[in-house]
């Protein structure tokens, strides 16, 4: 370029850079911070309400009675608020769900990440993710009106409302989450590491089981824990298909109510504001929140603890 | 098979062609690699040198669109033969890669990975394998007190020597090296070159390098590749001092590349 012209360009640039205000640079971080704090304040607000209303509840019901097996919130003379039947229901539905979701989800992830051709992956992954997009009420209906009748032919004593059917369906719902997160963890293992193993005469299966999965284990375990947390918090499927029995039982063929199911039942009409029953919702909600928060912390810990540095 | 022949030629490549889809990356390659020789493969980027070396242990077939024709005889047997198991071939023909790629495991577990997956379980024997392999890779003294530390705590040069030890642990016959020093500093590079010099007493080595000085320092024979063709293959000192082909001369004198 001619000397004069490049000198001109330089002048324009130098002028502009001097004149340009840095207002946007100072303003935007504040805007970002404000928008980001919405979620933090919301969370804080929720926790605050859960805690204050739970305190109301515990001033009526001693902790000892809360952690008991007797649950009869609508008994007008002598209401009882033992939460253990609900914990039982939550625990069993979640365990059954994990028994379905972990093996199926992990094998799906292994197949997609290590064995499927690019073409198959491109078709299968979106289809699987559609599973995650189905509204949970549809799953609940599916469990109640399709899976339960089928199971009834296999298990003679199965109640119309039971724990097994929603557990299985909840597991199916969670499969895409386990598969997708585990697949992400496995496909982010560097290709060079796989090559190193192939170069030593490993078969594809050996590379997968002895190199890829150990290297991705933190992400895989974290996906399991997040899936558990999802199962604990899941509401519609269990509300529809596992019913509202408040008996403390270990019989999986019978109805059990989960913590989330309890909240659904009560918020849909029966709890007058200000009653102990009304406040019990907050206590159950708080416990549920603590459970899922604990699971998320476990997920974080697991993914840090088992991370293989590379 | 003739025993005499076996002891001389390790690899004989005959009319090798290779395509990535419709692009031909190797065109009618013919060369022989002799026992205990270091063969350097040089050429500009994209000339097919890495493709070629990865064909020698059929690693190239991990890319699904690759097709080959021609023969590669390894001790007289065609490696493309249907009866050949690639896993078996790769235990005899080890490979070291461009960037050090240890597994995210301990130093010890890295070295014994190969022997372990091939069925060696005896702890004492594995320990012995680890020690001899690390000694052969000139790494033992630096790591003998921390065999259980994660391999990623080592420096880049140490990691690469660990990868060499890992390859040696399965007792191969040939070691293929694909630009093993391209990610290393000059001191680490010098150590690897020194190592190659001692390794060639026991192993046959083929090394891809983009550095002509390196080829000159370490190799007995040099192959010059250009656009998928083997332009010239000769004893290293001959190829560098008295190239027959104009293109070789242009490349080694730095006129292109």
Report on the structure:
Chain A: Pfam families: BPD_transp_1. Chain A: It is found in: Cell membrane; Membrane. Chain A: It is a multi-pass membrane protein. Chain A: Keywords: Cell membrane, Membrane, Phosphate transport, Transmembrane, Transmembrane helix, Transport. The complex is a heterodimer of chains A (310) and B (257). Chain A is mainly alpha-helical and 310 residues long. Chain A has helices at residues 3-19, 23-60, 63-66, 84-115, 118-133, 136-154, 164-187, 191-199, 204-233, 236-241, 259-270, 276-305; strands spanning 71-72, 80-81. In chain A, a hairpin with a 7-residue loop joins strand 1 and strand 2 (80-81). Chain B is of the alpha/beta class and 257 residues long. Chain B has a single domain, classed as 3-Layer(aba) Sandwich (Rossmann fold), CATH 3.40.50.300. Helices cover 38% and strands 26% of the residues of chain B. Chain B has a six-stranded mixed sheet, sandwiched between helices. In chain B, strand 7, helix 8 (186-199) and strand 8 (204-208) form a beta-alpha-beta unit. The chains are: A mainly alpha (310), B alpha/beta (257). The interface between A and B is medium-sized, with 22 and 29 residues.
Keywords:
heterodimer, A: 310 residues, mainly alpha, MetI-like fold, 12 helices, 2 strands, flat, B: 257 residues, alpha/beta, Rossmann fold, 6-stranded mixed β-sheet, 4-stranded antiparallel β-sheet, 11 helices, 26% strand, globular, disordered N terminus, ATP-binding (chain B), Phosphate transport system ATP-binding protein (chain B), ABC_transporter-like_CS (chain B), transport (chain B)
Task: Provide a short characterization of the protein structure.
The complex is a heterodimer of chains A (310) and B (257). With 310 residues, chain A is mainly alpha-helical.
